[in-house]
Specification:
10 helices; 14 strands; alpha/beta; 2 domains; Rossmann fold; Dihydrodipicolinate Reductase, domain 2; eight-stranded mixed β-sheet
Amino acid sequence: MPLIIGVGPVANVYARILSSTYGVSRAFFMRSDSSKGLPVSFGKLFESASLISDLGDIPSDVTHIFILTSWRSTVQVLNRVSLTFAGKILVEKPHIYTAEIMEESCKDYGGNVFFAANRRYYRTVETFRKEIQASEVVNVFVTLSEDLRRYINLRGARETWEVLLANCHIMDLLIYIFGSIKLLSISKRRFDGLFYEFSAHLMSSIGAPILLRFNYDAPVPVGITALTSDRKSHSLAPVEVYRRYDGYEKVCRNDEYQRNEYKLNESCTLMEESDVRIGFGRMIDAFVRGDWTRSVSYPERRNLASLISQIDRAG
């Protein structure tokens, strides 16, 4: 029987998957303010949906715990639950957002804690990863773009950087695909006195140089592109679409075209299903089966925390 901690939009997705896919009919819930009661939408999904108010009094028939809380309380809730609960625990991101919090609050929790990152379960991502591992990576280009005003209004400029990068699927995928990453250099520019663009030169443990560009609210395609030594280009832009290009053709100018053109030879296109529950569903299935293969590991969490702190301090 599951205990779902948190009642936000992500918790709603989890509850629907547990109810519809796994036929779960009974579930416990917990929210930060138990006096508000359980949202009606959750009660409709299960024959029995009960709200508990104290983490120190987890019912004995709870077999799985899903920590789907706000970013400010995730680590604190995990630390408390992991002390008393021996069953399986799934933790939604962001798991950490600075090296300081990693040192103060996190540890290697052991084999019963599953750190979630649902994009790791996309077929497009796994195809990209296998293609990359089968060849030598020449270089990697990564572009991020976000409208950060709402983040800043909620959290302040400094925490916005940290939480955004810790919560970013692409940042997690860089480590998942290319191994541990270190910062070599970075340049930053501030715009409108509000936020800034940065370009960072990174290096991965497999020897892949990575150019990471963050453009504040810019109209640019977001994603990852990797060039390999076999003259192939592999693209996740967006993450839901994988494309492979095998070289290109140069079309010389003629009577119809007054300029030279370079046409990419697209040899493979794979599209993930558009339903956001696909990644969540595969991830929950792995969690329930005890398959920790794609769970975000402790070294990966430490690496991301360290990288975020380096980006924050540099420049």
